[in-house]
Amino acid sequence: MNRLPPSASVAHATEGAKLHAPAAARNAAALTDLLRKHAPHSGTALEIASGTGQHLAAFAAALPGLTWYPTEIDAARRASIDAHVAEAGLTNAAPAAPLDATAPGWGAIQHPKDLIVLINLLHLIAQPQVDTLITETAEALAPGGLLVLYGPFRRAGKLTSAGDAQFDAQLRAADPAIGYKDDLDIARGLSDAGLSPIDSLQMPANNLAFLAGKPLL
Hints:
With 217 residues, the chain is an alpha/beta fold. It has helices spanning 22-38, 54-62, 75-88, 106-109, 127-140, 162-174, 183-192; strands at residues 12-13, 19-20, 43-48, 66-70, 113-119, 141-151, 153-154, 181-182, 198-203, 207-213. The radius of gyration is 16 Å and the shape is globular.
C-alpha cells in the first residue's frame, strides 16, 4: 500500500454512509461535460477507484444510457458510493464492487466495457502499478471502447505550476515511489497497450484528460 500525505485523497463524513471529497465537488461538472462530449451514450461503463461516489452519481445522471459499474478498494468508500447513488435515485448504476486495478489479471475476467473512467489515481501509485493498470484496463475495454484518464501530470518532464510542484513534493516526501507521472510516458504506455488514437485535453486546475480508444477487431 502506498503511503499518502494528508493532502491526498481527502474525504469527510456527512450524513449516513456518504462521504464528501472537496476535490470531487470541484471537478465533477468539468468531467461530466467531458464525458457528455466524448463518451459513448449507451453500453457499459466501469469507473476505477470511484472514491466517494460523487463523480459516479453525476456521470450516471448525465449519461443514463450507460450502465455504470463503480469500483473501489476501500469498504467505507464503497458504502459511500452506494449511498450517493441511492440518494440520487439512479437505476443505471450497479452496487460498488471491490477492485484493485493495480493487480495483474483482472482485465481478462471483466465483461468488456464500452467506457472505462479513472480519475485522480495515477499520481498516488508507483510507476509499475501504473503500467499494470494501463495494461489491464486495455484488456478490459471492448473493441471500439474508450478509456478516460484524468489527473495532474508533468508536461514533458516538467511541473508547470507552483501548486503542482508543491503537491508533487508532498507526495514524494510521503512515499518516494509515487508522485506526478509524465504525460509523454502515459501516452507511450497507452500506445504500448494497443490503444489508439490517443489524445490529451487541457482541463481546469492544470489537469489533463487522456482519451484512448481500443481499435475495432
